[in-house]
C-alpha cells in the first residue's frame, strides 16, 4: 500500500540507474511524472516506454543541475503545481584523491550532490506546506558514514545529505509531510563506469541491483522509515550507531574540557 499522496512525481537523474527505476515504480503506482537529467535521448526513451507500458503521463526536462540555469529551471518546475513526491536522486562521485581531481570538478560535485538537492528540497517543502502533505526522498549513500581517502567530497556530500534529510524529518515529524533518506550500498548502475571506474573497487558479491534497491526503499517509505538502508540485514547495527550518537550528544554537554586535554 503506497504511503505517497496521489499526483505528480518528480525524479532527478532518471536517465539511468536508480532514478530510472524510481520513475518506473512511481508510474506503476499511478503517478504523473516529470523526469529530469542531461541526456534527453535517454529520458525520451524511458518516457516512451512508461507511456506504452503503463499509460503513464510523463514529461521530460533536460537540465544540468550543476549549472545555476539548469537548477533554476528544475526548481521552478518542482514549485509549479501539485506535487506528490520529489526524489532527489541525481548525484555523482567525483572519486579520486583530492589532489587528482580539479577544484572545478570538486565544486561541480558539491553543486550537484549538495546545492541542487538542497534547493530542490526547499522548493518541494514549500509546495508540501501549501498542500498540507507530500513526500521528499533524498538519495544519500552508506558512504555518508565512511570517510574515504578516494572520496573525500563524495563521502562528505553524502554525510550532508544524510544529516540534512534527517534534520528535515525531525522538523516535519508531526505533519503529513514525509521525509526519507535512502542509503544505498554498492548498486549495479552506470555510476562507476560513467566516471571511468571499474565496479571492482567493491567486491562483486557486495552489489545489489537498482530494482532491488528501489523496491526496498519504497517498502521502507511505506513502512514509515525516515532512514532506509536496503543492504543492511541487521537493524541492530544501525540502532547501535544511533544509541552511540545519542550518548555522544548527551556527553558533549559536560561543560568541562575532557581530562586528556587538561594541561598540568
Ligand atoms: N551506484 C551506487 O553504488 C550508489 C551507491 C550509493 C549511492 N548512490 C547514489 O544514487 C544516486 C543515483 O546514482 P546511480 O547509481 O543510479 O548512478 P547513474 O546510473 O550514474 O545515475 C546518475 C543519474 O544522475 C544524473 N546526473 C548526473 N549528473 C547530473 C547533472 N549534472 N544534472 C542532472 N542530472 C545528472 C545522470 O543523468 P545524465 O548523465 O543524463 O545527466 C543519471 O540519470 C546518486 O545520488 C548516487 O550518489 C549510488
Automatic annotation (TrEMBL):
Top-level division of the source organism's lineage: Bacteria
Catalytic activity: 3-hydroxypropanoate + NADP(+) = 3-oxopropanoate + NADPH + H(+); L-allo-threonine + NADP(+) = aminoacetone + CO2 + NADPH
GO MF annotation: an example: 3-hydroxypropionate dehydrogenase (NADP+) activity
Keywords: Oxidoreductase
InterPro entries listed in its UniProt record: NAD(P)-bd_dom_sf, Sc_DH/Rdtase_CS, SDR_fam
CDD domains linked: SDR_c
EC identifiers of the protein: 1.1.1.298, 1.1.1.381
Family: Belongs to the short-chain dehydrogenases/reductases (SDR) family.
Database matches in PANTHER family: NADP-DEPENDENT 3-HYDROXY ACID DEHYDROGENASE YDFG, VERY-LONG-CHAIN 3-OXOOACYL-COA REDUCTASE
Functional note: NADP-dependent dehydrogenase with broad substrate specificity acting on 3-hydroxy acids. Catalyzes the NADP-dependent oxidation of L-allo-threonine to L-2-amino-3-keto-butyrate, which is spontaneously decarboxylated into aminoacetone. Also acts on D-threonine, L-serine, D-serine, D-3-hydroxyisobutyrate, L-3-hydroxyisobutyrate, D-glycerate and L-glycerate. Able to catalyze the reduction of the malonic semialdehyde to 3-hydroxypropionic acid.
Name of the molecule in the record: NADP-dependent 3-hydroxy acid dehydrogenase YdfG
Originating organism: Glacieibacterium arshaanense
Amino acid at each position: 500500500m503506497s504511503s505517497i499522496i496521489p499526483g505528480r512525481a518528480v525524479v532527478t537523474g532518471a536517465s539511468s540507474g536508480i532514478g530510472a527505476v524510481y520513475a518506473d515504480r512511481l508510474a506503476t503506482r499511478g503517478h504523473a511524472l516529470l523526469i529530469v537529467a542531461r541526456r534527453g535521448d535517454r529520458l525520451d526513451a524511458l518516457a516512451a516506454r512508461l507511456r506504452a507500458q503503463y499509460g503513464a503521463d510523463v514529461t521530460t526536462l533536460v537540465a544540468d543541475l550543476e549549472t545555476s540555469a539548469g537548477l533554476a529551471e528544475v526548481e521552478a518546475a518542482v514549485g509549479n503545481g501539485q506535487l506528490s513526491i520529489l526524489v532527489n536522486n541525481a548525484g555523482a562521485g567525483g572519486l579520486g584523491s583530492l589532489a587528482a581531481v580539479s577544484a572545478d570538478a570538486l565544486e561541480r560535485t558539491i553543486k550537484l550532490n549538495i546545492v541542487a538537492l538542497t534547493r530542490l528540497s526547499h522548493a518541494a517543502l514549500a509546495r508540501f506546506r501549501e498542500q498540507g502533505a507530500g513526500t521528499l526522498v533524498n538519495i544519500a549513500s552508506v558512504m555518508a558514514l565512511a570517510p574515504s581517502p578516494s572520496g573525500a567530497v563524495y563521502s562528505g556530500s553524502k554525510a550532508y545529505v544524510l544529516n540534512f534529510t534527517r534534520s528535515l524529518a525531525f522538523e516535519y515529524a508531526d505533519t503529513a509531510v514525509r521525509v526519507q533518506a535512502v542509503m544505498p550500498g554498492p548498486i549495479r548502475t552506470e555510476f562507476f563506469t560513467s566516471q571511468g571506474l571499474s565496479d571492482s573497487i567493491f567486491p562483486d558479491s557486495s552489489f545489489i541491483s537498482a530494482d532491488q534497491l528501489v523496491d526496498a526503499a519504497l517498502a521502507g517509505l511505506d513502512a514509515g522509515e525516515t532512514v532506509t538502508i536496503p543492504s543492511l540485514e541487521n537493524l541492530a547495527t544501525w540502532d547501535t550507531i544511533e544509541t552511540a550518537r545519542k550518548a555522544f550528544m548527551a556527553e558533549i554537554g559536560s561543560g568541562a574540557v575532557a581530562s586528556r586535554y587538561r594541561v598540568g
